[in-house]
Specification:
The chain is built from 17 helices and 23 strands. By secondary structure, the chain is an alpha+beta fold. α5 crosses α6. The longest helix is centred in the middle third of the chain and has 15 residues. The protein is globular.
């Protein structure tokens, strides 16, 4: 929340083949389940008798929607979106789904990821007379797809044609006049899966949203695959399925909910495996293992099981904090951490603590957490991180786009230990990532650890 990697968005779509459900309410509930992927805006677009109705605004799902709005949307298929933006200022124009009209109809696009050649595509479109309302990549995608649609017989054909021109990460859910379309880029940077709910077909960023509706997970959408759902059923196009895939490793380290399964790997068990590997490769004597809520808890359980050191609930979380708020000074940042997290003195006092977290970005929050432990009476605080050092920028959908923001790029491991006031500090070895992802049916991207990216990055 205060010193973490943030992912950009969550997307969801549903098609009711019977045409009897109010899918707007289903999408709203799904956005609740995906709220961890974005808290800055929320939106829903549904097809209602051939026209696309939509509502979107800044805020959490429950702030943007109410019963009257959801009942007014109607429709039997549609898509939804929750957004986290790396931009300092976010306006309603950047909220999604993004709607566009063209001579052959209307589309709504919900996008998760980051298009690394978006600016060059935007410049090219502008030179041809295109006008833009926002800085969103989704609007660029809408223009490209609409332009290609003029030359093709279907929206899916236009998407298949332009996918080779779009570089970077994009998991899309698109509503047209009569179809729901799901698209995953050929590297599969961001997750996207298929589920069933009665006679409804669902697509979602994470399987946890399918579970929340009482549906059944069917499978992941393959990297490069285009899935089209209409009144006649579902079709799959795999013309662009040419790569094994490079799922962002931070989906399993931090972004996703622990009850999700992504590319055949349980998020919960991947994090436990990372913690177990830490216990084997970076052991230390201590009295209890404490996980930082939420994504550090599973790794802490794995560390405790493998090491034999008891797991303790040493930190409690304020569940009523959703979005971030501004902290301009070190004192304000520490206060913000204390509002969100508090140490349980009865558990921590007089103990040697192993504190497990998923990553260190700038280092400010980790230092505050160590301070919380010491103030609660911990005699020693040993920090263990369930991922390798975050050394390089990510260009595929997280908000870390500069090395200057990364403490591991500026300081040695010992210097970081001193700066956060830990007794010891250790990270998951890079080889440990392979063990936590051993069941993956695709590849995964570790460019933020190694600077070896699946896609060439232009200056």
């Amino acid at each position: 929340m205060f010193d973490s990697v943030h992912e950009e968005c969550g997307v969801f779509g549903i098609f009711d083949h019977d045409g009897r459900r109010n899918v707007a309410k289903d999408i709203y509930l799904a956005l609740y389940a995906l709220q961890h992927r974005g808290q800055q805006s929320a939106g829903i677009a549904v097809n209602y008798n051939g026209a696309i109705n939509h509502h979107k605004d800044l805020g959490l799902a429950n702030e943007v929607f109410n019963e009257m709005i959801l009942n007014g949307l109607g429709g039997y298929f549609g898509c939804g979106h929750v957004r986290y933006s790396k931009e300092k200022s976010v306006t309603r124009d950047e909220a999604q789904p993004f709607l566009a009209k063209h001579i052959k109809g209307q589309i709504a696009i919900a996008h998760n990821g980051n298009i690394i050649n978006a600016q060059s595509l935007r410049d090219e479109l502008s030179e041809r007379g295109a006008m833009f309302q926002s800085a969103s990549d989704a609007e660029v995608l809408a223009h490209i797809i609409a332009r290609e649609r003029l030359k093709t017989e279907s929206t899916e054909a236009s998407i298949l044609n332009v996918m080779k021109d779009i570089k970077g990460a994009f998991s899309l859910v698109i509503v047209t006049m009569n179809k729901l379309i799901a698209v995953r880029d050929e590297n599969g940077f961001r997750p996207l899966c298929i589920g069933k709910l009665g006679n409804c077909t669902i697509v979602s960023s994470e399987s946890c949203a399918i579970d929340a509706l009482g549906g059944t997970f069917v499978r992941d959408i393959e990297p490069g695959e285009v899935v089209v759902v209409d009144i006649n059923g579902m079709k799959s196009y795999k013309d662009n399925c040419v790569k094994k895939g490079s799922l962002c490793i931070f989906e399993h380290v931090y972004f996703a909910r622990p009850d999700s399964i992504i590319d055949n790997v349980s998020v919960h068990f991947a994090r436990k495996a990372a913690g177990a590997e830490l216990a084997m490769t970076k052991p230390v004597e201590a009295d209890i293992v404490v996980g930082v809520p939420d994504s550090g808890i599973d790794a802490a359980l794995g560390y405790a099981e493998k090491s034999g050191i008891p797991y303790g609930i040493g930190l409690t979380k304020n569940r009523y904090i959703g979005r971030t708020f501004i902290q301009t000074s070190a004192a304000e940042r520490l206060q913000a951490v204390k509002i969100k997290l508090n140490a349980l003195k009865s558990v921590v006092n007089g103990k040697r603590i192993i504190l497990i977290d998923d990553s260190i970005v700038r280092g400010t929050t980790t230092a505050s957490l160590v301070s919380l432990m010491r103030d609660a009476g911990a005699t020693e605080v040993h920090v263990r991180i369930s991922s390798p050092p975050f050394l390089y920028p990510c260009y595929f959908g997280t908000d870390i786009d500069s090395q200057d923001k990364l403490i591991a790029h500026r300081l040695t491991e010992e210097e970081i230990r001193i700066s956060i006031d830990a007794d010891t500090l250790a990270y998951l070895p890079l080889e440990g990532v392979k063990k936590m992802m051993k069941d993956s049916k695709t590849g995964y991207c570790v460019g933020c650890f190694t600077r070896k990216y699946p896609v060439k990055i232009e200056e």
